[in-house]
Amino acid sequence: MKIALFSHCAIDTIGIGDSTYEQIGGAACYAGITARKFKFDVELVTKFGPDFPHKQYLSDNKINFVNAQSNKKTTKFAINIVGSERTLKLENQCEPIDYTGINADGFLVSPIFHEISAETFEKIKQDSNFLFLDPQGFLRRIDSGNNVFLENTTLDLSNINAIKVNPEEAQKLVGTSNDESLQLLQKRGVEHVILTNKTAVSMLVKDRIYSITLPNKKIYDTTGIGDIFCAAFCCTILKEKDYLWALCFAGGAVQAALDSKDVGLLKIPKKGSIENNASYFYNLLKYRSI
Asked: Domain ranges in the chain?
């Protein structure tokens, strides 16, 4: 099976306590490598500059990409992490991505900072059979100091099969971050609406909210955790056609990544660890009607 992934590659400088790490990142890397763990072919639509240090890393992991090289430097963030909270500063922005058409089982759209134009987004939606959206990069703006913040944003969510938002993103999209936000996003056409709030994960499908809770353990590097979640959900639902297993596999992937206590791409878990956690979450899955 094949997944098409739309996102910039990034270079992240991650600060945790007194330690600093420079890693390649972005949903292109985190979601792409996670999808490969699920044995999916990955067609990556991205852009990176001559300063991107690990082009060969993507090729070695059998992530396919064409026309990705840009003359502009790679998108770069400085990330400071304290517990489950993090702040971002944009240090460089690469050029927007191009899209001409891909035949894939599913599409995962996860911009990190305005690399996907409204016109490109519409082209992607028209071609997709199943589309999962992480809207964070559509909502992000920068202040005079290049600090990243979220702004109220109107997005056309027609032809979106699944979306993942956190409370702040939900607030910027529909004006609220509680159960009503799930319903409002559903009314705009999304079939599977997922809200992640630190250790609590909820998903609205039809008139039921399903929920799992990640074990409350010490969190280290959270960079890319959302991307790992999205890729695990997308691959599982495409392969198994079961949204509850998809939710549990996504939560299982996040938990395995956090349990590793590794930094950057090193924390992307193996399929076996994800499966063990998914079975655990499936047995503890809760639901309620709304």
From this structure: 2-289
